[in-house]
Amino acid sequence: KQDIEKKLQERKEKAAASQNEDRVVAKVVENASMEIPEKMIDAQVDNMLRETAQRMQSQGLSMDLYMKYTGMTADQMKDQMRPEAVKRIQTRLVLEAVVKAENIQADDAAVEEQFDKMAEDFKMDKEQIKGMFGEEQMAQLKEDLAVQKAIDFLVAEAKFVD
After folding, report:
1. pTM (2 decimals)?
2. pLDDT given for residue 160 in this prediction
3. Could you give the CA distance from residue 70 to residue 77 in angstroms, rounded to a whole number?
4. Helices 74-101 and 63-70 meet at what angle, rounded to 10?
């Protein structure tokens, strides 16, 4: 019973921290000004559509069947996803700018910690997971970890978020 209570409390704390992170990052993005090329938005929308299709397929539902049930076309789905795509791009660009401005980098300890977490999550050997990472994937992992450190930095620096 105590273990369940502890896990529920941890989940609650993680959700609260995540909400705070989202609010801080949203405020920073709101105050940023940028122009995003249409091609970048289109690529993000296409990526989101692929992710949606993969999620549906993992639940046994095809995209064609989903569109038939909802009466939506692929273009309508893309139009619906567009605002979220813009938001994702803006957020990533702002966080990457913070990484650059603050010279934030993922150190080896953070990378090792991430591999430990992956090994635990996927119930695999850590070295086996490392072996699956090529140069490109390792660079992306380090970039993602640096972006998370940028979020942590912004949250620590935030004086007040309404």
Report:
1. 0.80
2. 61
3. 10
4. 120
